Amino acid sequence: MSHAFYANSTFGLGEQQREVLAQADRFARAELYPLLKKMDDEEWWPPELFPLLGRHGYVGVTVPEVYGGSGLDFFSQGLVTQAFSRWNAGAAMSIFAHDNLCTNNLLRSGSATLKQHYLPGLANGSLVGAMALTEPGAGSDALGSMRTTARRDGDFYLLNGNKMFITNGPIADVVLVYAKTAPERGTKGISAFMVEKNFPGFAVAQKLEKMGLRGSPTGELVFTDCRVPVANLVGDENTGVAVTMSGLDLERVIVAFSALGTAERCLELAIDYAGQRKQFNQPIGEFQMVQKMIADMYAAIEGLRCFVYQLAAEVNALECGAGGRGEVHRRTAALLLIAGQTVTMCADSSMQIHGGTGFMWETEINRIYRGSKLCEIGAGTNEIRRIIIARDLLAP
To answer: The domain containing residue 313 runs over which residues?
Structure first.
């Protein structure tokens, strides 16, 4: 199948946006796709990848040029994620965690000193970033059930606690960490910090083995009286909720871009296989049940594309603290609900079309199938997304 399907599915994008998507697609096909097999088979992360991305401007996408970044907007970051996810969703996951969860949140909420100190390295790939919010006992209720604390001690904060399921945790040089500075205030007592891996008291407890997106390293982080300079506070003390909730809405849009790119690849693989595989002396693409699956995949993808592009344009300049409530929070939850359902449906249908071949571990559709489920779990599960939507619509 030619890439005309991709090229012609850019309605609503401006000329510069089309070029960003096309260039990122070419780069990912050339540089990320060849890494897919080894990354998935061996749970391996290529150590030279982030510097390579930095040289080509694919990390630090939203970072201003004065800090060494590409100076593009949030929408462009989403388009890069879409293209990367077509060819290597595991790599895209780690790049997204670095560039959106860590770098972009620092850019939006950090002090001038923190930006000057960390953004150049994050933008050129010499530093790997991560974000640590989820804990062993705090997933869907990550803020309310947070147990990690940060106690002021002179010119430092002492962090204590564990963070679980942290993308890039095992390889990160710097982590945006959320902790309670005033536990008695509940969610209003949370603060955000930039924590370096060499700070005393920081440790990677374990690297976690996953069923999908295996090349993206995920781990548990432990903080034991971890000494973090006061200057590394992101935003003001006890304002971490504004940082995380505004960032969460943007995260959901970026994950939806990833789901879109992955679903596009599912459809491309299904069309290719349906045209090549023959049964009963004819390509299986001539069977109406296969045609139905392909048509349904295409229709769902096009619907998702419209929603992703529309909402990305709406939140393109979302101010820090503006998210986490109201219409934008409801709409990003709805977007990711649809995105997760779409990509898992496309992965399942493409797997069904591949039949026994798709069930083999080493096939590309098998890798996609195993990884796609995360889109219904990460950044808030489908159930949480529905709660957000319904509560907002039913509110008096």
So the answer is: 240-394
